[in-house]
Specification:
By secondary structure, the chain is of the alpha+beta class. The chain contains seven helices and twelve strands. Helix 5 packs across helix 6. The N and C termini lie far apart (43 Å).
């Protein structure tokens, strides 16, 4: 079917050439010829305009698709409904050995995760809760896992996408020992007022896989805060030329650049790299900045 072909194609990137790149660890290697493993694929026609009404653009209809793969399974396994955080609240900031990224839509920087631009320290859940305000974007991180994003509501409650459902949970219950941080400035878009952020998040509580068009916790939480349809699967038309460029900063001088036709596609690949440590897509540019 034509729709199915469109869905599969949307997970690919456009490439110009591939070259070997030096890596900081043996776990990071280029595997450009491997096929993506996609399972449990289904799709439906859904309006991709935002129900909150905050978008000013004309409403468009596109193909929204919902599926799970290795990244989503990792995300699910990393969380437990019964886990209670026992880390002391006075724990100070800690640094993790994380990959650093910057991302661009054509020439505009839309995403930055660089030590030089942002405090990448993480905190215990108890400490994080004392720092957070309603509407904040929270990120829970751990080695070899995709980060889990949530919208902070108040007290210890967050709203997030978990196991294909928009739900409200205690941050203690979903942390599973992971530490976290506030990532309001990770994306460079203008944020909505906190009350609209909370309206976006709470307005979708209880919806599950067949009713939503976000494929991971980051895309949902970022949409709540910024209200941009680009965070939705099928939320933007794929152009003939790649629009998005993700730079993986392997070292101070070595940068590996991946190219994509949609923001949601780029987010999924970056999260997969965070979980696996492997650059699997083909590259546009390898070299020094």
């Amino acid at each position: 079917m034509v729709i199915c072909a469109f869905v599969v194609r949307s997970r690919r990137t456009t490439c110009v050439h591939v070259s070997n790149i030096p890596c900081r660890s043996s776990a990071l290697s280029l595997m450009g010829n491997q096929l993506d493993r996609i399972t449990h694929l289904n799709y439906s026609e859904l309006p991709t305009g935002d129900p909150s009404g905050v978008e000013k653009d004309e409403l468009r209809v596109g193909v929204a698709y919902f599926f799970s793969d290795e990244e989503d399974e990792l995300d699910d396994r990393s969380q437990s409904d019964s886990y209670k955080d026992t880390s002391p609240g006075e724990l100070g900031p800690a640094a993790l050995g994380e990959l650093q990224y910057s991302a661009f839509c054509r020439q505009e920087c839309i995403f930055s995760k660089l030590h030089e631009n942002e405090d990448l320290n993480v905190y215990s859940v108890k400490t994080l809760l004392t720092m957070s305000k309603p509407g904040d974007l929270l990120e829970l991180v751990a080695t070899a896992q995709p980060p889990h994003w949530a919208i902070f509501e108040g007290e210890d409650q967050v709203i997030h996408l978990h196991k294909g459902e928009i739900r409200k949970d205690s941050l203690f219950d979903i942390s599973c020992g992971r530490q976290g941080r506030i990532v309001n400035s990770r994306y460079r878009y203008r944020p909505l007022p906190p009350d609209l952020v909370m309206q976006n998040a709470s307005g979708h509580l209880g919806l599950s896989s067949g009713e939503i068009c976000w494929t991971n916790s980051e895309s949902f939480a970022a949409w709540c805060r910024f209200g941009k349809r680009e965070f939705k699967a099928g939320g933007e038309a794929h152009s003939a030329e790649p629009r998005y460029f993700l730079k993986v900063h392997l070292s101070a001088s070595t940068v590996h650049t991946l190219v994509f036709r949609s923001l949601e596609e780029m987010i999924r690949e970056r999260r997969r790299v965070d979980a696996s440590g492997i650059l699997q897509e083909l590259s546009l540019v390898d070299g020094k900045e």
